[in-house]
Amino acid sequence: MSEYTTRLTAPSKDNKNYIHTSAGGFNRCIEIGNGYCLPNCVGYVWGRWRELLGKDPKLSRRNAEDWYGYTEDGYKRSQTPKLFAVACWKKGKLWNENDGAGHVAVVEQIKANGDIVTSESVYGGERFRTRTYTKKSAYYLAKGYEFQGFILFPVEVKLTEKKTYTKGDYRVTDASLLHVRTGPGTDYRKKKHGEFTKNARSQIYGLVRYKADGYVMNVEFTVYEVKNNWGRTPSGWVCLDYCTKI
Q1: I want to staple 225 with a disulfide (CB 3.0 to 4.6 A). Which of 90, 117, 129, 232 is the partner?
Q2: pLDDT tens for residues 142-175?
Q3: Composition of the chain by helix, strand, coil, percent to 5
Q4: Domain of 140?
């Protein structure tokens, strides 16, 4: 049994699982533009399974509505959702993209009443979104779409408990270089050494004897605001997953 973490926020733009192989990434689905396979439901779901498995999945790379019938992938099918399964919808006739290409999404949460929360991308629309589909509606997507079923994730899943963080004093304990960003996420710009406070610059230089562009191991700082697993320090935002509260 392997441990996994659900994805309810957008992957960073430098996440290679969603970047086409021609641009140095791992994704083998159609390139949408600038080396990215997003926004596109197929590119997202294929990339999400690759992110989870750590290797290329055997999923189809054709139109979304063709995935459920592509049993050559060797994955089990079901009408009952399981974590990280691919939810599949068709539109119009199968193998006919002229009347619609269907849709696929990844099951990230299953509620007690059978409703599911998915992570997904929309061709020509949103790069990333989450959406709730209800069991009562037979996982209704939109007019003209028919739910086909779930392609089951091939590994037994144990979810990793998500840590919670609070304001206070922290020390870097699990990173040789922890980037400091302008906002709470990897989509925000990394700050340079000269943008840090005098206290942070002094600590960094005292520990490694050079002007590192990030907090090094054992740098201490105060967190004044927390958003998910990110903390706002005097020099900028850092990911608290690599830190210990002191």
Answers
A1: 232
A2: 999 999 999 999 998 877 666 789 999 999 998 8
A3: 20, 30, 50
A4: 2-159
